[in-house]
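> @MW can you paste both from yesterday?
MW: sure, first one:
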Amino acid sequence: MIKEKFYKLPNLPYGYKDLEPYISEELLRLHHDKHHKAYIDSANLILEELDKARKIGKELEIKAVLKSLSYNIGGHVLHSLFWDNLTPDSAGKPSGELAEAIDNEFGSFERFKQEFNKAALSVEGSGWVALTLCRKTKRPIIMQIEKHNVNIFPTFNIILVLDMWEHAYYLDYKNEKTRFIDTFWDIVNWDEVLKRI
């Protein structure tokens, strides 16, 4: 039932200039073509090494290998979600079932944005902020992800992510993280986020 043995860099659902002025073409090319691709290349290399080692019965430092694999696959998965939840044609705010869930949980969309922004701003070091959906309670819950693979709530469906690694904003925003976070809301693809519920 395996579709593909290795990971591939996904195409962006828009052109490199389409997110300007919020994200420049230069930053988008660097982020997508270099940083995201590096996680894919590293994950694929580790998978190749695992395949070779298993064929010849070679011992591996499995803890280190699996930690590195988790980090790189996490980087690939989160970046793939990130690209798809951006659009040059943002509706500005969610509608339907998602809007109702956000209002029920946070009291209002504005309150949700405030909490999400604070979570993004307080990510320690390199990481992400995400809106998740608990499968059991159906509650939308904000999650901070350290690096790509630490502090993840198991089985929670990630429906919206914001990359808070410096490579995601520094070229355009320098150390003005708050401005980067604020402009994120102008390019959120709420239709895509709604599909992930």
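MW: second:
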Amino acid sequence: MTVFCLVRHGAYPLLDRALGGRADHALNQAGLAQAAHAARVIAARPIAHLASSPVARAVQTAEPIAAALGLAVNIEPGFAEIDFAAWTGMEFTALAELPAWRAWNEFRGSTGVPGGESMLAVQARAMAAIRRLHAAFHAAWPEGEVVVVSHADVIKAILAHVLGSPLDLLRRLQIDPGSMSRFAFGDRDARVLEVNLRS
């Protein structure tokens, strides 16, 4: 089996205020500290590969991890943030007034972002990337882990797949900025090992 360490990007100025989406926003000071902490923790582990969402805040989180490990940051579109289309940049107070936003949060498994992605599509592309990385590294690096830097809902979608949990229940998972979650993935089985670690 391949062990994956899923790292959520660090904090950035729009966190808890507006929907950043795929727009490129830099980490704030708290986010930089979270990225540095994740790098220190991960540097002690046997890491075979480092993959990141192409979105700037994820790449910026991955960079100190790469430096600590002596590895490159490999951009993987499968781990990109959800395409929120016209919702990108909107404040949550404004989004809360939209029936489509409320439906998206209550019924993730059957409701998509208008003009953007469905949660099923996000989960499918993320799990396709997980399978590709497992196929590439499980034989060559049997003791090595793969680090993936991504976004809260993408990480939740991956964990939901491993747990066999409906996408409608995603909000039951807490994934904080800079946190790490680990799972083991094999050809016939998968197991969640740790969720939302911050130390």
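> thanks! The mean pLDDT is 96.
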